[in-house]
Amino acid sequence: MGTKFNEIVEITKEFTQDLKTSSLSDEIDSLNLKYLGRQGKVNSLFKSLPIKSDPKIGQQINHLKKFIQTKLSEKLEAALSVAGHQVIDVTVPGIPILKGSLHPLTQTIEEIESIFKGLGFVRRRYPEVETDWYYAEGLNIPKDHPARDDQETFYVGENVVLTAHTSNGQLREMEYKKNPPIKMINIGKTYRRQFDASHTPMFHQFEGLVIDKNINITHLLGVTDYFVKQYFGPDRRTRLRPHHFQFTEPSFEIDISCGLCQGTGLIGKTSCKICKSGWLELGGAGMVHPLVLRNGGFNPDECSGFAFGWGVERVLMMKSGLPDLRLIFSDDIRFLNQF
Ligand code: DAH
């Protein structure tokens, strides 16, 4: 018992000394071999025990083995991190790679664009800082019309505005194409002096314009219905409601059937919370006024056309049930992650 015990003490001393003088990882590896290897000191000690030896000696040797293991792995870890290596624990869960995505508005604009492209429309972008002619005068909007009021409109110079609608694109497109046919969708930014749950000073509109021989209201209805069914779903219906705009005659507001009550205005026996009447307003449209055709250099006796101007944020809100438009322009990742 005594000699084996002495051997344990000797090995412990030697190991402690060895450990002090080795710092590189391969030095530590060779200590591992020297003490814990198959031919190593600890194993030899085990092997040298007589068959009927005191179990306490076995325990002591096991202690020594554990002690050496712990010290060596601590030292190895320190050596590796000094050498600039990270000790890799393969059991730690990985860091997820965050994937970006397009902003919901960009997604909506792309979807609108692709629906209209499917009907042969070309995508345009026309100026968002515009002169009075394209923005108002040429569209038959008189001087005293509220659309020109500086309470509503951002003036950036004399007779120069940040466009409050995308309808300036109508005259611009006629000037550019010079002759029918025209089939364009102008998607751009629009600006108005307003800010509440359903209005922001900057928003987006998409303006459609179709001009050709014999274009009539049924074409407007057909295109509208196609867009509504593609964007909102095949069970949605469309209706025209008489309205007034300076640059169309006749003019309409377009309504679509409510997706919640299916156009009935009722959920069970109570009135639908979303629409109350069964219908939701999409936006304005109409047959291009002959004066506007003329202002664009087209002959109203030879061609006719329809136009519409609808809000991008508005259709996104109608489709997703968003309660507050301002959320779209927030940078709240919890909101954005939903799209
Ligand atoms: N420009 C109108 C607005 O911003 C919307 C509009 C109505 C556009 C009728 C049109 C149209 O092209 O035909 O309120």
Automatic annotation (TrEMBL):
Occurrences of domain Aminoacyl-transfer RNA synthetases class-II family profile (ranges): 181-318
Cofactor(s) recorded in Swiss-Prot or TrEMBL: Mg(2+)
Gene3D superfamilies in alphabetical order: Bira Bifunctional Protein, Domain 2 (3.30.930.10)
Localization (cell): Cytoplasm
A GO biological process held by the record: phenylalanyl-tRNA aminoacylation
One Gene Ontology CC term in the entry: cytoplasm
Coiled coil: none
Binding site for Mg(2+): E249
This protein's UniProt keywords: Aminoacyl-tRNA synthetase, ATP-binding, Cytoplasm, Ligase, Magnesium, Metal-binding, Nucleotide-binding, Protein biosynthesis
Pfam families (UniProt xref): Phe_tRNA-synt_N, tRNA-synt_2d
Substrates-to-products reaction catalysed: tRNA(Phe) + L-phenylalanine + ATP = L-phenylalanyl-tRNA(Phe) + AMP + diphosphate + H(+)
CDD domains: PheRS_alpha_core (cd00496)
Keyword Transmembrane: no
PROSITE patterns linked to this entry: AA_TRNA_LIGASE_II
Cofactor note: Binds 2 magnesium ions per tetramer.
Highest taxon in the source lineage: Bacteria
Protein EC: 6.1.1.20
One GO molecular-function entry: magnesium ion binding
Entry similarity comment: Belongs to the class-II aminoacyl-tRNA synthetase family. Phe-tRNA synthetase alpha subunit type 1 subfamily.
Alphabetized PANTHER family for the sequence: PHENYLALANINE--TRNA LIGASE, MITOCHONDRIAL, PHENYLALANYL-TRNA SYNTHETASE
UniProt-listed HAMAP family: Phe_tRNA_synth_alpha1 (MF_00281)
Subunit structure: Tetramer of two alpha and two beta subunits.
Protein's name according to its UniProt entry: Phenylalanine--tRNA ligase alpha subunit
Organism encoding this protein: Candidatus Collierbacteria bacterium GW2011_GWB2_45_17
